Amino acid sequence: MKLGIHPVSRPVVFRDRASDATFLTLSTASSETTIDWEDGNTYPLIDVEVSSASHPFYTGTARVVDSAGRIEQFERRYGRTASTTR
């Protein structure tokens, strides 16, 4: 590994704005804002819109999209039917 070409990774706190969850991890991202963490140290703070704490896939609130209804709506709108043979 070449020296001097890789960014420095350091502890950074990410805060999910949707669920107000915070987590401390290593990152190369930088920020002007800081936060006092539970261990008494001050870390850079980065706000994110979505994380595993608020994403529907991870929270179990994901909805299934009705693709059959969309196809039927398309066929009604344009007067076409799906062909079964080529």
Automatic annotation (TrEMBL):
Q: Can you supply one Gene Ontology CC term for this chain's record?
A: ribosome
Show the PROSITE patterns listed in the entry: RIBOSOMAL_L31
Q: Which Pfam families match?
A: Ribosomal_L31 (PF01197)
Q: Does the keyword Nucleotide-binding apply?
A: no
Keywords, sorted A to Z: Ribonucleoprotein, Ribosomal protein
Q: Which Gene3D superfamilies match?
A: Ribosomal protein L31 (4.10.830.30)
Q: Which SUPFAM superfamilies match?
A: L28p-like (SSF143800)
Q: Which domain of life is it from?
A: Bacteria
Q: Indicate the quaternary assembly.
A: Part of the 50S ribosomal subunit.
PANTHER family from the entry? Answer: 50S RIBOSOMAL PROTEIN L31, CHLOROPLASTIC, LARGE RIBOSOMAL SUBUNIT PROTEIN BL31C
Q: What family name appears in the similarity comment?
A: Belongs to the bacterial ribosomal protein bL31 family. Type B subfamily.
HAMAP family for this protein: Ribosomal_bL31_2
According to UniProt, the name of this protein is Large ribosomal subunit protein bL31B
The organism is Streptomyces tauricus
Organism lineage reads as: Bacteria, Bacillati, Actinomycetota, Actinomycetes, Kitasatosporales
